Amino acid sequence: MWYGHSYVGQGRKNIPMWFWLFALIGFYFLFRWYWYRQTLQNLTDKYVFITGCDSGFGNLLARQLDGRGLRVLAACLTQRGEEQLKEATSQRLQTIILDVTDSENVTAAANWVKQQVRDRGLWGLVNNAGIAVPFAPNEWLTKDDFMKILNVNLLGLIEVTLSLLPLIRKAKGRIVNISSVAGRISFLGGGYNISKYGVEAFSDSLRRELCSFGVKVSIIEPGSFKTVIVNPKYIGEIVPKIWSRLPAETKESYGQDFSKYFKKIRILGMMSNSKLTLVTDCMEHALTAVHPHTRYSAGWDAKLIYLPLSYLPTALVDFLIALT
Ligand SMILES: *[C@@H]1O[C@H](CO)[C@@H](O)[C@H](O)[C@H]1NC(C)=O
Ligand SMILES: *[C@@H]1O[C@H](CO)[C@@H](O)[C@H](O)[C@H]1NC(C)=O
Ligand SMILES: *[C@@H]1O[C@H](CO)[C@@H](O)[C@H](O)[C@H]1NC(C)=O
Ligand SMILES: CC(=O)N[C@H]1CO[C@H](CO)[C@@H](O)[C@@H]1O
């Protein structure tokens, strides 16, 4: 008994505890790095359908995946967007005009995708199309203002997903939804943040349902990025219109200096990243890695500010947001 005890003690002295701890942590990170860096074979056989390719993340992702040899099916809202994208990409990339709020258009697009992919199925769906305006304090807005955004960002996304699910199941493919840090904390009124909360809920339930079919669902949560969605002209041009239709009593209660309600947005705008590839690289990983993540947060503000904030007690977050 006594000897055994002493022997174990000696062993500990020779190779200290902290060594094992560091070795374990090191091994964990090495394994993690290896696990997530494995890329799929035969990318050139895979079809990916992306909505909202006219500009911003969708446009960049379409060009990025095309460059890697995937077969990109790019949906644009406008003909101009379609033509510009075609000029910048290879012959492999196919485009279509799609308004995600129009059910007939969505059905037609799904049929078109089916013709393209044939019996291979659809490897990837990237729900990227989205709008952010109008936003303002909630009381200033109407049901129509909310509907406009929810129709594109939430219902449009749901309909596109539902109509393509059979093709995605067939390929045991991937669904990538673009949410936002706004899907975790809401600063300001309007349908945008609501739509992003909805996307998170939809994606979560979908991921759990489709797991048994071999379909993987990832959510990308970018911080604030300089895309068309964050248009600096907004506060100067659209907000005054919203303000002018308000009843006198509301105007009086909120006060003439309405710019203070948009201060947070201006701060967000100043902090916003201009490196859009931070986000499209996450999307690319979700589509091309053997083991994609469930959630990606892109941008230092998402990682360092919004995510930690979303885990703090509500009262504390309310206090911090009121400070800005
Ligand atoms: C890649 O394609 C080749 C030939 O088309 C096929 O034999 C192989 O199984 C494919 N690999 C994977 C991982 O799908
Ligand atoms: C969607 O509607 C637009 C405009 O009406 C049309 O140009 C486009 O071809 C339609 N898309 C599909 C897939 O039918
Ligand atoms: C997110 O993904 C799910 C499944 O991948 C899809 O059904 C849904 O429409 C997407 N969008 C939102 C807003 O959840
Ligand atoms: C936290 C956050 O991102 N909030 C967003 C809420 O929605 C507005 C637009 O409607 C965004 O500008 C905010 O960034």
Which CATH class applies here? Alpha Beta
**What does the overall shape look like?**
globular
- Please report the total strand number as a whole number: 7
Task: Spell out which ligands are present.
Answer: 2-acetamido-2-deoxy-beta-D-glucopyranose
Strand arrangement, major sheet: 3-2-1-4-5-6-7
Q: Any idea what the CATH architecture is?
A: 3-Layer(aba) Sandwich
Separate helix tally:
13
Beta-strand portion reads: 5-15%
Number of domains: 1
CATH overall fold name: Rossmann fold
- Main beta sheet: strand number and arrangement? 7 strands, parallel
> What sequence of helices (H) and strands (E) makes up the elements?
HHEHEHEHEHEHEHHHHEHH
Account of the protein in words:
With 324 residues, this protein is of the alpha/beta class. It has 13 helices and seven strands. It has a seven-stranded parallel beta sheet with strand order 3-2-1-4-5-6-7, with helices on both faces. Helix 3 crosses helix 11, helix 5 runs parallel beside helix 6 (143-171) and helix 6 (143-171) packs parallel to helix 7. The protein is globular. The termini are far apart. The model has no long low-confidence stretch (mean pLDDT 82). One 2-acetamido-2-deoxy-beta-D-glucopyranose binds next to helix 7 and helix 10.
